[in-house]
Design brief:
By secondary structure, the chain is of the alpha+beta class. The chain contains 9 helices and 20 strands. A hairpin with a 3-residue loop joins strand 16 and strand 17.
């Protein structure tokens, strides 16, 4: 019987699939400081995997250990079944693309890309063929004779990418690869990067602190904090089912309510808010003890806002006053002040151009907030 075709795109769900990269118990200490703290991670062939975290969380240190630029204090790294710990950086089947791009200013685009192949001693015909192929793939053929200072930021980024890929590494490591680009160009380049990775089938590992970038690019994300991975999953899993308040606030934003469990079963959880005794009904079950302290997280875009009260219900409803409005073009952000003093964030898509003077709600108006039972998530820490 043939395998489920979905597993080809989600190999981590296939119990028979072997990880292409295995990170086992990796620790890195600098004196008394532990930068990476006993982490384990499996990455599969062809993934575009993101390590996401704030500055100083250990993600770049881990990437440098994978590249061979740093030596682990403890633990092992395997690539394609081969242990890498004692293999020097120049012999590992990986290449690394840095945020600064590190292009040679005196060399043309094609010579920058060819540099690694020349150092490896390949013949001229092979070098020319490989360079032409990769230049065409990154759409730089007409710029091949230019030098880096004659290129835009996006073009320099593609030169650096082509130089890293032309040697056909098994794994490409990218450290904040789009950080030097402006927002519009960064968004455009994200999709170019995804298309190139899909064409080549090379396993990409991207280190970034940009949540939107990680969500857009990756097959899976590992979120890092204080040297540890604290949640790993697909972008949808990370966003829709965060493991903790930290994750809920780190990826996007969330309205978080402290409360205690009133009822808990296989099909639902009922939580009463500590602050104002409001009831939150969540339609997915959890094994929680009655009266256990929990938090309920609701994303701003999941909350409905209206001038009229919703249908009568004793749960998933709040009343407040519009405290602030931010118009962002495709979205409007509303801050609603509840009677208990808590501010709630709501995001609403501007799907229809409003008529003059026509607003969904206005400043200082009384509004009613509600949400579906499937929209909230219960967090235990």
């Amino acid at each position: 019987m043939s395998k489920d075709p979905k597993l080809a795109h989600r190999p981590w769900l296939d119990p028979e699939a072997e990880p292409y990269i295995k990170i086992q118990g990796i620790t890195k200490r600098f004196g008394d400081f532990t930068a990476v703290d006993n982490v384990d991670l499996d990455i599969y062939k062809g993934e575009l995997f993101c390590w996401l975290g704030g500055s100083g969380c250990g993600k770049s240190t881990l990437l440098r250990m994978l590249a061979g630029f740093e030596t682990p204090t403890a633990g092992k790294i395997f690539i394609d079944g081969v242990e890498m710990n004692d293999i020097p950086a120049y012999e590992r089947p990986v290449n690394m693309m840095f945020q600064s791009y590190a292009l040679f200013p005196h060399m043309t685009v094609e010579k920058n890309i060819a540099y690694g192949l020349v150092r490896d001693g390949l013949d001229k015909a092979t070098i020319q063929s490989k360079v032409e192929e990769i230049i065409d793939m990154v759409e730089l053929t007409q710029f091949s004779k230019r030098k880096p200072h004659q290129l835009s930021g996006g073009q320099r980024q593609r030169v650096a990418l082509a130089r890293a890929l032309v040697k056909q590494p098994k794994v490409l490591l990218l450290d904040e690869p789009l950080g030097a680009l402006d927002k519009r160009l960064r968004e455009q380049t994200q999709y170019e990067l995804m298309n190139i990775q899909d064409q080549l089938g090379v396993t990409f590992i991207v280190v970034t602190h940009d949540q939107e970038e990680a969500m857009t690019l990756s097959t899976r994300i590992a979120i890092m904090d204080k040297g540890k991975f604290i949640q790993t999953g697909t972008p949808t899993e990370i966003y829709e089912t965060p493991d903790s308040r930290f994750i809920a606030n780190f990826i996007g934003s969330a309205n978080i309510f402290e409360g205690h469990v009133v009822e808990s079963g296989k099909e639902h959880v009922l939580v009463r808010s500590t602050r104002d005794q409001s009831l939150f009904y969540i339609d997915h079950g959890s094994d929680l003890q009655e009266n256990a302290k929990v938090w309920v997280a609701i994303r701003p875009e999941k909350i409905k806002i209206s001038k009229s009260p919703p249908e009568q219900s004793d749960h998933n409803q709040l009343i407040g006053t519009v405290d602030d409005i931010g118009y962002l073009g495709k979205l409007s952000n509303y801050k609603v002040l509840l009677d208990n003093g808590k501010i709630i964030d709501i995001t609403y898509p501007n799907q229809v151009r409003p008529k003059s003077g026509d607003h969904l709600v206005d400043w200082e108006e009384k509004v009613y907030l509600s949400w579906d039972a499937s929209s909230a998530v219960v967090l235990t820490h």
